[in-house]
C-alpha cells in the first residue's frame, strides 16, 4: 500500500502564523507538523509516499523533507494542487501515483500515536474511515450509525449543526482504486469544493465502507486551540512532564484522551 499526505490549503484559520510558511510545516512541539502523519504511515509499513501541497510556500517542503530518507521514507513524490478545490480534489492528484493499488490517505494536520498497521495489513478493497470520539463533532464529518446495527454506518454528514453521534471522521482513510471514479462522479458542494464526505458516502451506498476507532491520542492541528493541544500532548509524551495549562485541554473521552 502507498501513502498520500494531503498538505495543501492556505491555512487561513492560523493567520498570522501561516503568513510565513505552509500550515503543515508549523511546529508541533519539537517537529514540523507534517512529520506526524509521515510517522503514522511509516510505522504502518507504508514507505512510498506522495505529498500533495499547494499555495505560495509549497517549495518549503523540499527544504524540510528533502528525499524523506531520514524519516524512513523509501520513495517520496510531490504533487502541486493549483486550486483550493477540497480534500477530494487534492486526492485526485494521486491517481497516477497509486498505479491502480490501494492507498492510505491522511490529512497533513492530523497528529496521532495510534497504530494502524493491523488495519493496513488486513485491508483488501472498498474504503475504511478511522473514527475518534470528540467533544466538538460539529467541526468534522460525523458518522450516522444504523439504530438496528450500531456497527454499521448508514451516512456521513459534513459539519452538521446537530451531530447524530460524538464521533468524528478523523482525516485518516484507506481506499481502493474506485476512489478516483467516485471523485470524478461527485459535484462541488455549496462551498465550491469536492467533499471527501461525498466520496465516503458513495462507498456506503455500495456497502463497502468499513470503520475502525483510533486508539490513543488523536487531534487535528488546524486551529489555534487544536495546534496547542497537539503540541501539549507531544511535549508531555516526549518529556514526561505536563505543560502549563495542559489540563484545560485534556478531557477524558475527548479528542485529546
Task: Please provide a written account of the structure.
With 257 residues, the protein is α/β, with parallel strands linked by helices. The protein has one domain (2-125, 171-247): Spore Coat Polysaccharide Biosynthesis Protein SpsA, Chain A, CATH 3.90.550. The protein has helices at 35-43, 60-65, 87-92, 95-98, 117-122, 178-185, 196-205, 224-239; strands at residues 2-7, 27-28, 31-32, 48-54, 75-81, 103-107, 110-112, 127-133, 141-146, 149-158, 167-175, 209-213, 218-220. The longest helix is centred in the C-terminal third of the chain and has 16 residues, at 224-239. Residues 252-257 have low confidence and may be disordered.
How would the blueprint of this fold be written?
Layout: E1 2-7, E2 27-28, E3 31-32, H1 35-43, E4 48-54, H2 60-65, E5 75-81, H3 87-92, H4 95-98, E6 103-107, E7 110-112, H5 117-122, E8 127-133, E9 141-146, E10 149-158, E11 167-175, H6 178-185, H7 196-205, E12 209-213, E13 218-220, H8 224-239
Parallel strand pairs: 1-4, 1-6, 4-5, 8-12
Antiparallel strand pairs: 2-3, 6-11, 7-13, 8-11, 9-10
Secondary-structure-based class equals alpha/beta
How would you characterize the largest beta sheet? 7 strands, mixed
Question: Termini, distance in Å?
Answer: 29 Å
- Ranges where pLDDT stays below 50 over 5 or more residues in a row are 252-257
The geometry reads as globular
Tally of discrete structural domains: 1
Order of helices and strands: EEEHEHEHHEEHEEEEHHEEH
User: Given the structure, what is the number of helices?
Assistant: 8
- CATH architecture, please? Alpha-Beta Complex
Strands side by side in the biggest sheet: 5-4-1-6-11-8-12
Q: What does the average pLDDT come to?
A: 91
CATH superfamily: Spore Coat Polysaccharide Biosynthesis Protein SpsA, Chain A
Percent of residues in beta strands: 25-35%
Radius of gyration: 17 Å
Oligomer: single chain
Please give the share of residues in helix. Answer: 25-40%
The CATH class assignment is Alpha Beta
Instruction: Give the beta-strand count.
Output: 13
Amino acid at each position: 500500500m502507498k501513502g498520500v499526505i494531503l498538505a495543501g490549503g492556505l491555512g487561513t484559520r492560523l493567520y498570522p502564523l501561516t503568513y510565513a510558511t505552509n500550515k503543515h510545516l508549523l511546529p508541533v512541539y519539537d517537529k514540523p507538523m507534517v512529520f506526524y502523519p509521515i510517522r503514522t504511515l511509516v510505522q504502518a509499513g507504508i514507505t512510498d509516499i506522495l505529498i500533495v501541497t499547494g499555495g505560495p510556500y509549497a517549495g518549503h517542503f523540499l527544504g524540510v523533507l528533502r528525499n524523506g530518507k531520514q524519516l524512513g521514507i523509501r520513495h517520496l513524490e510531490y504533487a502541486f494542487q493549483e486550486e483550493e478545490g477540497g480534500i477530494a480534489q487534492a486526492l485526485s492528484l494521486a491517481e497516477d501515483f497509486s498505479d491502480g493499488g490501494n492507498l492510505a490517505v491522511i490529512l497533513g494536520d492530523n497528529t496521532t500515536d495510534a497504530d494502524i498497521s493491523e488495519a493496513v495489513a488486513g485491508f483488501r478493497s472498498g474504503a475504511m474511515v478511522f473514527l475518534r470520539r470528540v467533544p466538538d463533532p460539529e467541526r468534522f464529518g460525523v458518522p450516522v450509525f444504523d439504530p438496528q446495527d450500531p456497527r454499521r454506518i448508514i451516512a456521513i454528514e459534513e459539519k452538521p449543526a446537530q451531530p447524530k453521534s460524538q464521533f468524528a471522521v478523523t482525516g485518516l482513510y484507506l481506499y481502493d482504486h474506485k476512489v478516483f471514479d467516485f471523485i470524478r462522479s461527485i459535484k462541488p458542494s455549496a462551498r465550491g469544493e469536492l467533499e471527501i464526505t461525498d466520496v465516503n458516502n458513495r462507498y456506503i451506498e455500495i456497502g463497502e465502507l468499513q470503520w475502525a476507532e483510533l486508539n490513543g491520542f488523536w487531534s487535528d492541528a488546524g486551529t489555534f486551540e487544536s495546534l496547542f493541544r497537539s503540541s501539549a500532548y507531544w511535549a508531555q509524551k516526549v518529556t514526561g512532564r505536563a505543560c502549563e495549562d495542559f489540563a484545560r485541554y485534556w478531557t477524558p473521552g475527548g479528542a485529546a484522551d
